[in-house]
Amino acid sequence: MHTIRTLLFLWLVALSATAQNTLVFEENGFKAAMAKAKAENKILFYMLYADWCPHCKKMKAEVFTDPKVIDFMSQHFVCGWQNIETGEGPALRKKLNTKLFPYFVFINPDSRIVYALSGELKSDDLIKEASTALDPKQQIPYLEDQFLADRGNAEKCLALLTTMRKGYERQALHPIAQAYFANVPDDKMVSDINWKIMANGVADIESREFQYLLKHQKEYAAVSSPERVERKILNAVTETMQVFATDTDTVAYYRKREVIQAMQMRKTDSLLFRYDMEIAERTGNKARYREATVSNVKRFAWTSAPILKDVAKKYAEYYADPQSLQYALDWIARALELDMTVDNRLTQARIYFKLGRKKEALASARAGKALAQQYGFSQADADALISAYEKS
What we know:
The chain has 392 residues and is α+β, with helices and mostly antiparallel strands. It is 67% helix and 6% strand. The protein has 4 domains: 2-134, Glutaredoxin (3-Layer(aba) Sandwich), CATH 3.40.30; 135-223, no CATH class; 225-300; 303-392, Tetratricopeptide repeat domain (Serine Threonine Protein Phosphatase 5, Tetratricopeptide repeat, Alpha Horseshoe).
C-alpha cells in the first residue's frame, strides 16, 4: 500500500511538472475561453495561429515554454487559442480582420478588446506588452475616449494610433487620423507630430491628408526625411492595391489605379506594373496581361531576372502568335544575361520549340543540362525536353 501511494504521489508530481512545461491554453472555443475569463474576472489573452505559420510554431516551442512567460501569463490572464483554418477560426479571422499571424487580442471581462498585437514576439517582449495591456490608461478604450473628447489634440491622437498600430491594419486607423486632421488647417499640416500621425494612420490615397502629403513632399521631408516620405507613399499604394488585386475587385482596382497614375512617380508606376500583372493573372485576362507587359517590361523589369523569366513563361503559356513569342524570347535572353540558370535555359528551350525552332530549342535544353551537371542539380527536366525534342 505504501508503495502504491508513493507511486501515485510521484505520478501526480510528474503530471504537475509536465503541465507547467508550457503555457496552458483554453482549446474549447472562443466562447468557452471568454466565459472562463469572465468567471475569473481576468483579461482573455487569445491567439489566432496557423499550422503553416513558422512564427506561430516558434512561439509555441520557445516562448510559451519559457517559465517566466508561463508564470506571468497564467497569473494575470486566461489564455486561449484558435487555429484560423478550423472550427471558429475562419469566422474569427474575418471578424478581427487580420492577415498577419500569430495574432493576439486582449479582451476584458466586458468583452471589449483592450489591446492587440501581431507577429512573432520574444519572451521579454511578450511580457512587456502584456504588462502594458494590464494598465487601464494604456488600453485602447481609454485612449480612444481621451482622443474622442479632444479630437484636435495631436498627442492624444498619436497615443491611440501608436497603440492600435501594434495589432491593426492601417486602413482601420485612417478614420482616427482623418478625424484629427479635420481640425488641422492647411498651414498647420506640416510638423513633426503631424508627420508621425500621417505615417502611422493615413491609408486612403484619395483623402485630403494624403493628397496634401503628395503636394508637399519637400516640406514633410524636412521634418522626417526624403526616404521616409517616399516609403510612406509607396506603402500606402501597396496597402491599397494589394487588397483589390488579391480580392480581384477589378472595379475598385482600376478606379484607384487612375489616382495612383496621376501621382506621376516612377516608383508608383512600377508598383502599378506589378499589380496590373497580378490582377490580370488572377482574373485570367490575357489581353490585360499583354497590355501591362508589352510596354512596361523594359521600363520596370529590365534588371530583374526573376520577373523577366516569369513574364516570358506566362507568354509561352498564354500566347501562340510569333510576335508574342518573340517578346518572350527577348525577355528570357535578357534574364540569361543577368542570371545564367538551368530554369532560364529550359524556359528559353520551350519558347524556341513553340516558335518551331527545334535546333535552337535542343541547343538550349542541352545547355540547361550542362548547367545542371556543373552545379550538381537534377537533370531530369532537361533530359525530358531533350528526349521530346529529338523525337519530334
